[in-house]
Amino acid sequence: MLAPTTRAPRWTSQRRVLELHLSELHKCGDLDRLKQIQAQVYKSHLHRDPFVVPKLVSAYSLCGRLPGALSAFHQVPSPNTLLYNTLIRACAHGSRSRSLAFDAFFDMRRSEVFPDNFTYPFLLKACLGPSALSQVEMVHAHVVKLGFLCDIFVPNALIDAYSKNGGLGLVAAKKMFDGMPERDTVSWNTVIAGLVRAGDVKEARQMFDRMPERDTVTWNTLLDAHAKAGEMDEAFELFERMPERNVVSWSSVVSGYCKKGDMEMARLLFDKMPTKNLVSWTIMISGYAEKGLAKEALSLFDQMENSGLEPDVATIVSILAACAESGLLALGKRITSYVGRNKLMRTTHVCNSLIDMYAKCGCLDIACDLFEGMVERDLVSWNSMLQGFAMHGHGEKALDIFFRMKREGIRPDGVTFLGVLCACTHVGFIEEARKYFASMERDYGIVPQIEHYGCMIDLLGRGGLLKEAFDLTKSMPWEPNAIIWGSLLGACRVHNNVEFAEEAVNELIKVEPSDAGNYAILSNIYAAAGRWDGMSKARVQMKGTGAQKPAGSSWIELGDVVHEFTVGDRTHPESDRIFMMLDRIGEHLKKAGYFPRAYS
DNA sequence: ATAGGGTTAG
């Protein structure tokens, strides 16, 4: 028998309605709606209600408005465990507010509000960055002291947090896993994911084979690991063997074949997918875009829209990155017009991707207009613009950007200095470059990475300061890589220095023995110096390694067709006319007094 | 009554 309906007191039903509205916000994330509801909360005097406020806090967090979450939190004079937990989760969510999660936690402890088993998984999400490992260790100690290891969610979250901290963290994660009295599928999946992240696909696979019960996530993790490692035979074998496939499984194989460049196979599987979501479309479109296949990418983008799916920020950013990589301006412009029609797309992130894409495609004027038109510029915006100018040889403009960002109080990072040093190279500012390089760590606390050394070495070498360039190479805290030896070698060629060149090329061959270009360069250097003995030695050396030099290529986009050219290639339909034009240009150059170097 | 961990696009 059902009990007769009892009428709840008016204030209770009002609160129920508000709670319901607030939990609906979890899905849509509508900020205006949230503000309306918050006004209702105030009007009903529920802004201190211990069950309503947590919902407000998480709704604000889901809308990406941490200040709103914080102010809702601060309305409550003495927050309880639930409210603190929601706040910690809200802070852990954003990338800039992670330290606030710990502030909230310490505040919670000071107020003698007791953490529970829900507190720690949230707090562990906030452990990222340089001091993450010690943070995880601290949380681990708390957990042990308060005895929350018995809730399997907590050790699982610990495994995840530990495993995100490199080799040392992975050791701790495995130790945690081994010490658990009981493990569930998530425990296994988390260690396996950690191993994959660390690049140890082999051990991940061993654990996968040892696992008592695998779910779709387990299969997907390993499938994707193989796909990302370029091992598509293994990936496809797992894909066929797995008992159940979902969108993620299909997306992973499609993505794997795209990365391998096997677009036919990728497309075949993409067409066979039982259900496609925004992610799968993004993978396929970006795959085409990255390969410069404009027609396919454009037509697929239209098909996606026709199927009723709205691209989101991630889709747009991903496609734009692919366009930037291949120089696919046509699709980039199509995306730009899409962004222009959608107010939701006017985010800093999207704008940054547009600037990067236009800059890399050589349209610096458009990139510049976009940059100047931005209302809110973040570090990435400044870096993209700076890098864009530097990359295309506009050293002064790049440095102007650097001075402007300093004036506006933006803290530069390592990427900024990479752009600055690159700009100095283009304008031959050796003295300035030395100054900036020295100021990185001293004034900004940025430890120069091997890329920064590479820039400096390149710059000194180009300037003819070969001795200084070699000295810097040897004083680096790392073993020089192929890029560094290569740029030293380039400098030796320009400045006709055979002694240094011999050393550089021998080192280059040590780190990159299968690149035939290196032997060719060595041989050319001997030839130029009239040392025929050395020349034939280099030729023999190359034969011995079976090295092959992949042909370099250049390409240009006209309309929406990308024309690609390689050395000696005569497959282009207009080939004869192109070579005729090249000859004419060559004549003009000679008349203007330019003679190509004998060896380059 | 209340909220939580692992995989895929960036």
From TrEMBL:
<feature type="repeat" description="PPR">
    <location>
        <begin position="184"/>
        <end position="214"/>
    </location>
</feature>
<feature type="repeat" description="PPR">
    <location>
        <begin position="215"/>
        <end position="249"/>
    </location>
</feature>
<protein>
    <recommendedName>
        <fullName>Pentatricopeptide repeat-containing protein</fullName>
    </recommendedName>
</protein>
<dbReference type="GO" id="GO:0003723">
    <property type="term" value="F:RNA binding"/>
</dbReference>
<feature type="repeat" description="PPR">
    <location>
        <begin position="80"/>
        <end position="115"/>
    </location>
</feature>
<feature type="repeat" description="PPR">
    <location>
        <begin position="347"/>
        <end position="377"/>
    </location>
</feature>
<keyword id="KW-0809">Transit peptide</keyword>
<dbReference type="InterPro" id="IPR046848">
    <property type="entry name" value="E_motif"/>
</dbReference>
<keyword id="KW-0677">Repeat</keyword>
<dbReference type="GO" id="GO:0009451">
    <property type="term" value="P:RNA modification"/>
</dbReference>
<dbReference type="InterPro" id="IPR046960">
    <property type="entry name" value="PPR_At4g14850-like_plant"/>
</dbReference>
<dbReference type="InterPro" id="IPR011990">
    <property type="entry name" value="TPR-like_helical_dom_sf"/>
</dbReference>
<dbReference type="InterPro" id="IPR002885">
    <property type="entry name" value="PPR_rpt"/>
</dbReference>
<dbReference type="Pfam" id="PF20431">
    <property type="entry name" value="E_motif"/>
</dbReference>
<feature type="repeat" description="PPR">
    <location>
        <begin position="378"/>
        <end position="412"/>
    </location>
</feature>
<feature type="repeat" description="PPR">
    <location>
        <begin position="277"/>
        <end position="311"/>
    </location>
</feature>
<dbReference type="Pfam" id="PF01535">
    <property type="entry name" value="PPR"/>
</dbReference>
<dbReference type="Pfam" id="PF13041">
    <property type="entry name" value="PPR_2"/>
</dbReference>
